[in-house]
């Protein structure tokens, strides 16, 4: 299922980029933007070499876009790395460094930059700002996001099947904040769909190593999370506990890895760049599993329970065709979830 969707996404990306490339053949004025003269600034809380977190998701998508060719290569980009959204002066300076590059488009990997972006956007009305997790301002700021709960549900199936195989109805989950339980609830619901007795213990906060230790002590046989941290993979591997990653496939080669819900913004970036080249407004974006904006990584067959892939495929088809509707609460845990205080 995942392989088919990825191939489809890559083919679609190529088609879109050929269309984009053809724009440069049109008559242009000094102010026209084409794929030849477009300049793209990228504001990163991490680095351009990041493979984890939203910087990693951003760069994975941009690298995939660039690998498709058609003139959108690294020369079109300028990066501001390790920008700290908590340091207003540093964030403003990073944004300005990209504007000095005469960007037509600026991509930010974190909504926490929004205050400084709003100021700069007001001063640079011809520049389009794409900001992960932000809201559209109706002018030149375009928020984008991807609903990953559908894929978290699938990851929950993988974890639930493993717990059932081990005959231990105990899973663990690291939630970044107890103010947003949507991913946790989706995961727990997926696990319960294949193992009725399963319970999920959750720890809120971002001290990953301590969280894993607490969940292992409680007897969790699989641990998942709604954020990505190398400490999760390391701690789970050291404790010989199976785990599901989050956001990327970075830790797929870890000894106890099961699977990971993954973001994919490639198509959104292609569409946004094409829109700017065509001098139209980028379309609002709130993608999900059915659109290919999220997907489940390959399942580690060496670790997964027998029949896991078949169970995931069945649920994935139901999510994609809409017959399985997922409505998850944000602030209230589902019945099989307990959050440690």
Can you tell me about this structure?
There is one protein chain. By secondary structure, this protein is of the alpha/beta class. Helices cover 39% and strands 17% of the residues. The protein has helices at residues 2-22, 53-67, 88-99, 114-123, 149-166, 182-194, 208-217, 230-238, 266-277, 308-321; strands at 40-43, 77-80, 105-108, 128-132, 141-146, 170-175, 199-204, 222-225, 242-244, 257-259, 261-263, 285-287, 294-296, 337-340. The strands form 3 sheets. A 6-stranded parallel beta sheet has the order 2-1-3-4-5-12, sandwiched between helices. Strand 1 (40-43), helix 2 (53-67) and strand 2 form a beta-alpha-beta unit. Helix 5 (149-166) packs across helix 6 (182-194). The chain is elongated, with a radius of gyration of 21 Å.
């Amino acid at each position: 299922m995942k392989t088919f969707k990825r191939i489809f996404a890559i083919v679609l990306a190529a088609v879109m980029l050929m269309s984009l490339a053809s724009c440069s053949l049109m008559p242009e004025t000094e102010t026209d933007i084409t794929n030849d003269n477009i300049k793209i600034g990228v504001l990163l809380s991490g680095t351009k070499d990041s493979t984890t977190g939203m910087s990693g998701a951003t760069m994975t998508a941009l690298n995939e876009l660039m690998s498709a060719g058609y003139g959108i290569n690294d020369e079109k980009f300028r990066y501001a790395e390790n920008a700290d959204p908590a340091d207003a002066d540093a964030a403003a300076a990073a944004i300005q460094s990209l504007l000095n590059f005469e960007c037509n488009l600026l991509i930010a990997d974190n909504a926490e930059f929004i205050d400084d972006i709003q100021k700069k956007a007001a001063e640079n009305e011809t520049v389009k700002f794409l900001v992960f997790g932000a809201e559209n301002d109706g002018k030149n700021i375009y928020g984008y996001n991807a609903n990953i709960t559908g894929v978290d549900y699938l990851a929950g199936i993988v974890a639930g099947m493993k717990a059932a195989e081990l005959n231990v109805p105990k899973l663990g989950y690291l939630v970044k904040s107890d103010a947003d339980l949507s991913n946790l609830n989706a995961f727990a619901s997926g696990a319960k769909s294949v193992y009725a007795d399963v319970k999920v213990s959750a720890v809120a906060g971002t001290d990953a190593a301590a969280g894993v230790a607490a969940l292992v002590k409680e007897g969790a046989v699989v641990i998942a999370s709604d954020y990505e941290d190398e400490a999760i993979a390391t701690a789970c591997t050291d404790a010989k506990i199976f785990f599901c990653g989050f956001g990327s496939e970075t830790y797929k080669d870890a000894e106890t890895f099961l699977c990971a819900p993954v973001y994919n913004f490639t198509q959104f970036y292609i569409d946004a760049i094409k829109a700017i080249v065509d001098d139209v407004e980028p379309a609002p974006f709130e993608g999900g599993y059915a659109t290919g904006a999220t997907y489940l990584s390959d399942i580690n067959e060496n670790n997964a329970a027998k029949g896991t892939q078949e169970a995931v495929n069945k649920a994935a088809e139901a999510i994609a065709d809409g017959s399985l509707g997922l409505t998850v609460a944000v602030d209230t845990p589902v019945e099989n979830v307990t959050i440690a205080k």
